Amino acid sequence: MSLWRWKSSDDPREQIHFRARLARYFPISGWLPYYNRHLLSDDLVAAIIVTLMVIPQALAYAILAGLPAITGLYASMLPLLAYTVFGTSRTLAVGPMAIVSLMTAAALSPLYAAGTPSYSQAAATLAMLSGLILAVMGLLRLGFFANFLSHPVVSGLLTASGILIAASQFAGLLGIGGSGFTLIDQLGHLVTHLDALHWPTFALGASALLFLLLMRRAGQVLRRLGLGPGAATFIVRLGPVIAVATTTLLSWWLDLPAKGVNVVGDIPAHLPPLALPSFDPSLLRDLLLPAFLISVVGFIESVSLAQMLAARRRERVAPDQELVGLGTANLAAAFSSAMPVTGSLSRTVINFDAGARTPAAGAFAAVGVALVILFLTSLIAYLPVATLAASIIVSALTLVDLPGLQRTWRYSRSDFAAMCMTILLTFVEGVEAGVMAGVGVSLALYLYRTSRPHTAEVGRLPGTEHFRNVQRHDTEVDGEIALLRIDESLYFANARYLEDTVYALLADRPSMQHIVLICSAVNLIDASALESLEAINNRLKDSGITLHLAEVKGPVMDRLKKSDFLEHLTGESYLSTYAAWTDLRHRLHDESLAEATTSTPPRES
Amino acid sequence: MSLWRWKSSDDPREQIHFRARLARYFPISGWLPYYNRHLLSDDLVAAIIVTLMVIPQALAYAILAGLPAITGLYASMLPLLAYTVFGTSRTLAVGPMAIVSLMTAAALSPLYAAGTPSYSQAAATLAMLSGLILAVMGLLRLGFFANFLSHPVVSGLLTASGILIAASQFAGLLGIGGSGFTLIDQLGHLVTHLDALHWPTFALGASALLFLLLMRRAGQVLRRLGLGPGAATFIVRLGPVIAVATTTLLSWWLDLPAKGVNVVGDIPAHLPPLALPSFDPSLLRDLLLPAFLISVVGFIESVSLAQMLAARRRERVAPDQELVGLGTANLAAAFSSAMPVTGSLSRTVINFDAGARTPAAGAFAAVGVALVILFLTSLIAYLPVATLAASIIVSALTLVDLPGLQRTWRYSRSDFAAMCMTILLTFVEGVEAGVMAGVGVSLALYLYRTSRPHTAEVGRLPGTEHFRNVQRHDTEVDGEIALLRIDESLYFANARYLEDTVYALLADRPSMQHIVLICSAVNLIDASALESLEAINNRLKDSGITLHLAEVKGPVMDRLKKSDFLEHLTGESYLSTYAAWTDLRHRLHDESLAEATTSTPPRES
Q1: How confident is the model at residue A29 (pLDDT cuts 50, 70, 90)?
Q2: CA–CA distance, A130 with B75 (Å, rounded to integer)
Q3: For residue A540, what is the nearest residue in chain B, using CA coordinates?
Q4: In what order do the strands lie in the sheet containing B573-574?
Q5: How far apart are CA A357 and CA A88, in angstroms?
Q6: Out of A147, A443, A454, closest to residue B495 by CB
Q7: Radius of gyration of chain B (CA)
Q8: What DSSP character marks residue A167?
Q9: A231 pLDDT above the threshold of 50
Q10: What is the ipTM of this complex?
Q11: Hey, are the CB atoms on A492 and B148 less than 8 Å from each other?
Q12: What pLDDT was estimated at residue A129?
């Protein structure tokens, strides 16, 4: 059944099936045929608000990535159109994003000088690689890979990059030039270049920062002054637009560029040039790992955001198709002289709140950006970089989640360790190292934990068919029957530990005649664990003790039947612990009688 | 409580405690005070047999490692004494071993030319690093690390290195010089150098090989001729000794060295010179990873062998102290101009069968080797290398376990994949790459499996308190209550998968009012999974569905109580599925009545 079988069938069921398949790969076909005037007006309003927001953000994130400011605007046009066709979230606003920009700068600056044409071309190459990786992962349904970035690692990453991004912009705010990509480099740069402080820039930047910080708290004041909550939120959200407009006018009026204040400068008033990224093999090799990490981090941010908002409106997001959507957006960026893009947290929330109903809102925002480029670039030329730095600082600080650190510490020390490792490595070595260290520590701790599984000797809750840990509950036990519950899948990392546990129990309980391994929590017995079970069975047999199993799950039992273990097992495999208990109690009782009258060996079952 | 507190106490309990502690770190103190004449005679017999065996093996493995033959004998003296003091296995025969020799050659030959003094010194350095790694791992109780080498990976490694070692020795058998460390290199070398075939060497080597292969099957014949099984086995085991003695005499009688047959040559008749290994930092850095892998592979081989034999005699082996024992053996090798050592499979089995009772047998074998060096080296000089090659080929082929491949294929495809990856990489890239690939594939497959956990909707087995998979058993179900059993710990890699599973169930069952997550197999809920549970709880709440938990284990519940999840949970946490079932059935029944008479929202519990 080929995807590309464009045939007209008379069978309506066939047609529905075809449409569903089409909508899976081209989500736009799921909503465009039903597009109407109401949806259009909702989407248009949202698009206008998002366009106002995206202009300063796009400029700022391009500068953060070490690229000409215009690159940010280029990255806010074609990628949005691509996502409109291939994306499944109705409200995700795609484009430049702070952490991705930081990672872009970290990947490219060892290779080329920031601001040069080679650097810009390498940014497009990075977008291409990232797009290919995302699209291929999506087509191969590899979205689950993202699951290996645990919540504490992502949260640690956001906190650390928020601080890192804010610190990196302080240099811009003070009128000092670029700095490094680790916190130490940045603070070192700041301290050693403090004598280069440019007072007019600092005055302007600090005022903008103060204004933006105050605006974040202005919501309550405005509502107390009688504004509706919607209007108040809207004005608060417009803070960055107001700051940009005011400082740009000020800069033009006082001719601040002539006084040494750094401004965005002339921007060519034309649409993004379609161009090929570089295909230099050594460059591709250098950028492969950064592209992969940018893809994963960007995807996780986007998809969790999209899922959160979709859940509020009972919509669904398909993670694997989201990979394709973000992949095509990055490919569009690559071939329009732009930079890596992903879902933007702040703009997505604004798009959602402003009432966007379909991905068409994104396409309209792209048109809005195009109009700004064509008609308003002469104004943007006067926009001071310090204003952009101030707006980045404010939005970067919202990424910092200190209560999350405390909550994680209380709940789980090992999650906290992964979180701290991520933060520390992000500060010291950058975002890439932070992500890898976080994933590494999470996996290592998980494996360590499963390699020493919890086991519990259980006893019967008197009068019931339930069996619980003898150390936590008042239970009925039998000195000749040991019931051992294993609280973990049995696999190579803990197979030997199981042997030790059983042998220790054996040494502790000289009267033991039967041991029942309760496998209710055993979801897998791999080949190594099977060897260990065979070793345990043989050793217990030599000591005259019978080994039984209980509550083995269906899939595990199916597997065991493929080996000859069950034939060698000295005891039985019981459906429930209760069945094992009653049968063995009965058997031990009968055996005592039998032993009194005959000398039959009692334990051959 | 320091280990080194040597005090004499009058309290006998205190003394017993002290002795136990001493025996933990110096296992020799556990048996030497009780040594007697009977143990001595048993150990002496075993030592004589092992000495006969160790001479050809030690020479052969030294040549395999690219070292002068005498190095193998050096490695069979001081290391055995060190292990006698610090080892916990009563029968493990320490010394040169085939796979470790192969790995030694692979590590050293890129650095120095084989046979040079620098190469020999680097071998001692490798032994030192390996010894330090083992000893430190032992003191830090890191023996569990070895568990990450799964049984299929070890088995694949043995099979592949058996073939690799046998192939590498064919060159020696044919009279062609040394070759590479991958199967391709070796076969290539063999084919391209076939014209250098030395007929007298080949005739001698092929005869020895044929003799040794026949001897392996001679046991049955000898027993049919009336020999007792013990005597027959003994004669079979002496095969290599007979081959060595015969071909050496032949070589001396016909003066084969003059005819171009490669022999062991003159060996200095003195005990190993005590010498320092190299401490060159760049060499140490180059050898660190190989030393680690040699340590792990050697340790796993030794400890599984020692445990298997100890179990037969109801003795115990302490894996962490075994690390210390093997570590000191390697340190002893490093400072006596030797090479990395570990437990030898063939000699250990012979030592055990010959009746060794304590590690003193190893010390006596070391004395035996010393006597051979002092008095018999003039004889050994005539021993043809082709005979050694033949004996290595025969013992290497015993490592190959093809039925194991088939057994693993039948039992588990993912274990089989790890096994094949190990074999393939060992062939193509060598033992180091094979080990790492095997561990990597095993872990990746385990993580992949746990990232898509098995879940089952369960129903009541009619008339019982037991609940089983509705698809496998005839069960009683209720359209308004969904009982979902989760067969895996919930952690970051599967947290999102759980959300998808629950939402899919939700979409499938429009009549559902309650969902119970049965956590009998959930051994951990980490911070990411907690976030997912909170998301599920909130989303179900919005849809008017109540979320319950059942059979949450003690440790998991303790953890959950540290968060505020249980306060937000819309439903209850039940001790058993049966309790959940009866309570909810009762509640739904009451609710139906209530709804009929009042309009109270029914699901606020």
Answers
A1: confident
A2: 54
A3: B311
A4: B467-469, B455-460, B481-486, B514-518, B546-550, B573-574
A5: 12
A6: A147
A7: 32
A8: H
A9: yes
A10: 0.73
A11: yes
A12: 95
* Alpha-carbon gap, residue A68 to A59, rounded angstroms: 8
pLDDT score for B594: 43
| Closest approach of B403 to chain A, Cα-based (Å) | 13
Taking contacts as CB-CB distances below 8 angstroms, the residues of chain B near A319 are: 496
Q: Which two tokens stand for residue A98?
A: 């702070």
Among A447, A130, A89, CA closest to B493: A447
pTM of the model: 0.73
How far is the CA of A9 from the CAs of A24, A25, A494, B412, in angstroms?
19, 20, 57, 45
Tokens of residue B374, six digits = 């002092």
Distance from CA of B241 to the nearest CA of A (A): 34
Cα radius of gyration (chain A): 32
User: Cβ(B580)–Cβ(B516) under 8 Å?
Assistant: yes
Closest CA to A514 of A462, A479, A476: A479
pLDDT at A286 over 60: yes
What strands lie across the sheet with A546-550, from one edge to the other?
A467-469, A455-460, A481-486, A514-518, A546-550, A573-574
CB contact set of A604 (below 8 Å; sequence gap of 6+):
none
Residue B525 · residue A151 · CB < 8 Å: no
Structure tokens at B586: 């009762």
Buried b (16+ CB within 10 A) or exposed e, B547-573: bbbbbbbeebeebbeebebeeebbbbb
Residues from chain B contacting residue A323 (CB–CB below 8 Å)? none
Q: What span, in angstroms and rounded, lies between the C-alpha atoms of A319 and A88?
A: 8
Across A319-328, A566-575, A596-605, B166-175, least confident range: A596-605
Start-end of H helices in B65-77: 69-74
Residues in chain B closer than 8 A to A147 (CB atoms): 451, 492-497
**∠ at Cα B229 (B227, B233), nearest 5°?**
100
Inter-residue contact A560 to A525 (CB < 8 Å): yes
Q: What is the mean pLDDT of each run of 10 residues along chain B (605 residues)?
A: 46 65 79 85 86 85 88 92 90 89 89 88 94 92 77 86 84 71 76 80 90 83 78 77 89 86 80 84 90 89 77 72 93 93 84 83 92 85 86 83 88 89 87 84 85 87 86 86 90 85 82 90 88 87 89 88 90 90 85 42 36
Query: Which residues pair with residue B482 across a beta bridge?
Result: B515
As given in the structure block, the two tokens for residue B432 are 């180091």
Residue B541 main-chain phi, psi, to 5 deg: -60, -45
Taking the C-alpha atoms of residue B540 and residue B498, their distance in angstroms, rounded to an integer, is 14
Distance CA A423, CA A415 (A): 13
CA–CA distance, B275 with B302 (Å, rounded to integer): 27
Range among A35-49, A389-403, B443-457, B568-582 with highest mean pLDDT value: B568-582
Task: Please give the mean pLDDT across all residues of chain A.
Answer: 84
Name the residue among B150, B407, B469 with its Cβ closest to that of A528.
Answer: B150
Could you say which of A408, A414, A451 has the minimum Cβ distance to residue B144?
Answer: A451
Unique residue bearing structure tokens 């019967």: A460
Check if the beta carbon of residue B491 is closer than 8 Å to that of residue B524. Answer: yes
Report the 3 state secondary structure along A187-250: HHHHHHCHHHCCHHHHHHHHHHHHHHHHHHCHHHHHHHCCCCHHHHHHHHHCHHHHHHHHHHHH
Distances (CA, A) of B501 to B65, B327, B459, B505, B514: 55, 50, 18, 6, 15
**Two tokens, residue B185:** 């290199």
The domains located in chain A, with CATH, are 23-443 (no CATH), 455-597 (3.30.750.24)
Tokens coding B16: 């017993």
